[in-house]
Every structure is written in structure tokens, then in C-alpha cells.
Specification:
This protein is mainly α. The chain folds into three domains: about 200 residues, no CATH class; about 120 residues, no CATH class; about 40 residues, no CATH class. Helices cover about 70% and strands about 0% of the residues. It has 18 helices and no strands. Helix 6 packs across helix 9.
């Protein structure tokens, strides 16, 4: 068997991973996601009209399958072409990209660098798709975004490679020549790092931010990694400000995360939105979420302000906002409701609420009795004689 045949088979096997995951997901795992959505909608007693937004009707399932089919075809074709450029093209006589002589672009070696960056993006995509598959969260947008990511990563590395002399100086050419294949693979896996490198060296590509605007990326939240950040960005949630104001119900229906996890993230995001980088100081004092401020006494705010980089007024305003924010109470209630998996848990929670209500009623009765006793004593009437 010739090397060309072996490499061609390798390209076919690697590219076939994408359609196989989509087929396996729809045959064996898709129903699990549908059952979980129905469970959430039943527990929350969602309005039927709003329910139709998240539950796919039988008449529309064929349309959804077609949408997934074309997304998989798009990503598979891009994968096949990119991997062929790296592995099979030299055996077919395609050793380099066509060059523009006047501009000296692209430079020799561009095909290899492009292919290595594409391979890095593809390997990252395999891991990402497997994670989404394991979480029962494999939808058509995953394949579209993967195809775009592979193209974007390859083009970013191609531009960086051809602009090395201009950005780093001609003396760096010999050193970088041996590093570029490995560097292209790494940047292909993490194209944002390469894009950030370009923006730092080309100020025209970077946008100016006002000094008063605090940077609050999602990675500031404990528990959110790079994959979780990408998943939330698919829903238009790019910063802690976006997550702090996101509607909880659509978020839990459109993502694979549990109710408790989302509640914790949103409450952390509200704290990050209030203090920005100041949350690092608050965490050292055991304050992770916005509701942790509710139990702090006013006298302790001065000590907390002195021990951190935050002002007392900022801490006081955040504490008052917790008590006045009905959304936080609603968020805790919904999160507790969706965290129940048995009827016994619901019964225990109802019993606890009844006990708490009786305790509050007893406290109010005792307080009223004390006030009545004090009023009678002022009038000279002995309470025991009544």
C-alpha cells in the first residue's frame, strides 16, 4: 500500500468523526435531552405558548434534522479539504500555495504552516465535540462554529507567519523557522491567543476602552472554563455583565448545566458586575456570591473596606441591592425547585417552609404580646390580672 493511499485513508477516517458523532447522538442520546427539557418545563409550569419555543414539534423534526445534516456536511467538507492540504497535497504535486511574485506572498512554507494550524484547530474540535456529546448538547451550531474556527485559526496563523519579519524583525527569521510548525499547531488550538498577539502589535486592530469600564470576562467566575465560556458565548453571553442580567429559565433550557450550577454562576456574576477585579479580595474573605453580602453587619463593612481595595459605600450599595432585588429571591427559588429529583425532596422542602412560617408567626405573636404588656404597664394595669 502506497504512502498516498495510507494518508488518504487517514484523512477519510479523521473527517468521518464528525458525521459519526452526529448520527450516534441522534440515535442514542437525543431523547435524554428532550426528557430533561420536558421535566424542567413541567416543574416550572411554563406557559404552553412559551413551551413551544423549546420543545420541537413532530412536524418540525424533519426540518431540524436537515439543519443538522447540512451543518455536519459543511464541517466535514472543510475538515477533508484542510487535512488533505496538510497530508495528501504534497503527494499530488501541490507543494505550496500559489504566490504573488510582486508582493512575495505567501512565503515558502505557508502550506505546511496553514495545515499545522488547521490540524490544531481540528484536534481541539474533536475534544470539544466529544464534550458536547457527553453532555447531550450536540446541536447544528456546534458544527458550523467548528468549521468557522478551523478556517479562522488557519488564516490567523498564515497572516502571522507571513508577517513575522515585519512584526518581529528580520533577525528573528532563522530562530522562528524551526518553531513555526509547532507554534502553528498550538495557535490553531487556541486562535484567540494568536489574534491577541496580532492586536497588541497592530494598534489599528484594537479598540479603545474607557478607563471606567471594568473588564469582566466569564473566566473570572469560579467553575467556568474555556469550554463553558464558549458555550455561553453561543447564547450572546460574553461577559459577567451579560450573565448577571441573563434570564435563568431560557438559560437552563438551552444549556446542559444544572440548576445549582447556573444559580451559583449568576450570583457570582452579579458580584463581579459590582466590583470587577475586586472580587479577588472578597473571595479571600469568604465572599463568593452577591448574597454573601446580605449577612454582613454594617459595622463589619468598615473592616472589610479597610482589608480590601473596595470602598465602604460600594459595599453598602451592593448589600442594599441584594435586599431590594426580587430577581435574586426568584432565582434561588427556581434553582431549589429544579434541584429536586424526588417527591420526598419536595415534601421535605414544603415541610421546612411550613415550620419556618410557624416560627415566624410565633415570633410575631410574642412581639405583639410584649408590646401589649408594655402598653398596659404604662396605663397602670397589671398584665397578670387580665
Amino acid at each position: 500500500m502506497s504512502p498516498t493511499t495510507i494518508l488518504t485513508m487517514a484523512v477519510i477516517v479523521l473527517s468521518s468523526f464528525l458525521p459519526l458523532t452526529a448520527l450516534s447522538y441522534n440515535l442514542f442520546r437525543r431523547d435524554r435531552s428532550t426528557l430533561e427539557i420536558n421535566r424542567i418545563l413541567d416543574l416550572l409550569q411554563v406557559d404552553p405558548d412559551y413551551r413551544n419555543v423549546f420543545v420541537v414539534a413532530e412536524s418540525h423534526k424533519i426540518r431540524e434534522y436537515l439543519q443538522l445534516f447540512w451543518a455536519v456536511v459543511y464541517a466535514t467538507v472543510i475538515s477533508f479539504i484542510g487535512l488533505s492540504i496538510l497530508l495528501v497535497a504534497p503527494q499530488l504535486g501541490f507543494t505550496e500555495f500559489p504566490a504573488v511574485t510582486v508582493l512575495h506572498f505567501p512565503q515558502p512554507g505557508s502550506r505546511l504552516i496553514f495545515g499545522m494550524a488547521f490540524l490544531g484547530a481540528y484536534v481541539w474540535g474533536l475534544h470539544y465535540i466529544f464534550q458536547r456529546y457527553a453532555l447531550n448538547d450536540l446541536v447544528s451550531t456546534v458544527y458550523y462554529s467548528l468549521g468557522i474556527r478551523m478556517l479562522l485559526a488557519s488564516l490567523i496563523v498564515l497572516v502571522m507567519y507571513n508577517a513575522t519579519d515585519s512584526l518581529l524583525g528580520p533577525e528573528s527569521g532563522e530562530v522562528m523557522a524551526t518553531l513555526w510548525p509547532a507554534l502553528a499547531f498550538v495557535i490553531g488550538m487556541f486562535p484567540r491567543s494568536g489574534l491577541r498577539w496580532l492586536m497588541e502589535r497592530l494598534p489599528i486592530l484594537s479598540s479603545e476602552e474607557h478607563a471606567s469600564v471594568r473588564r469582566t470576562p466569564l473566566t473570572m467566575i469560579e467553575g467556568i472554563g474555556s469550554y463553558d465560556s464558549l458555550r455561553l458565548e453561543e447564547l450572546g453571553i460574553d461577559t459577567c455583565y451579560d450573565l448577571a442580567t441573563a434570564d435563568f429559565v431560557p438559560l437552563i433550557l438551552k444549556t446542559p448545566y444544572s440548576a445549582r450550577q447556573l444559580v451559583d454562576w449568576i450570583l457570582q456574576a452579579k458580584l463581579c458586575a459590582c466590583f470587577g477585579d475586586g472580587v479577588k479580595d472578597l473571595r479571600t474573605h469568604g465572599l463568593r456570591t452577591i448574597i454573601d453580602l446580605k449577612d454582613i453587619e454594617n459595622a463589619d463593612l468598615d473592616e472589610l473596606a479597610a482589608a480590601t481595595s473596595l470602598t465602604r459605600s460600594a459595599l453598602r450599595n451592593a448589600k442594599e441591592s441584594v435586599r431590594a432585588d426580587l430577581e435574586i429571591k426568584r432565582l434561588q427559588r427556581i434553582g431549589s425547585l429544579l434541584s429536586q429529583f424526588t417527591r420526598y425532596e419536595a415534601a421535605d422542602e414544603d415541610l421546612a417552609e411550613m415550620v419556618q412560617a410557624e416560627q415566624n408567626r410565633a415570633i410575631r405573636a410574642e412581639r405583639s404580646l410584649t408590646q401589649l404588656q408594655s402598653k398596659l404597664q404604662k396605663q397602670g394595669i397589671e398584665f397578670e390580672s387580665l
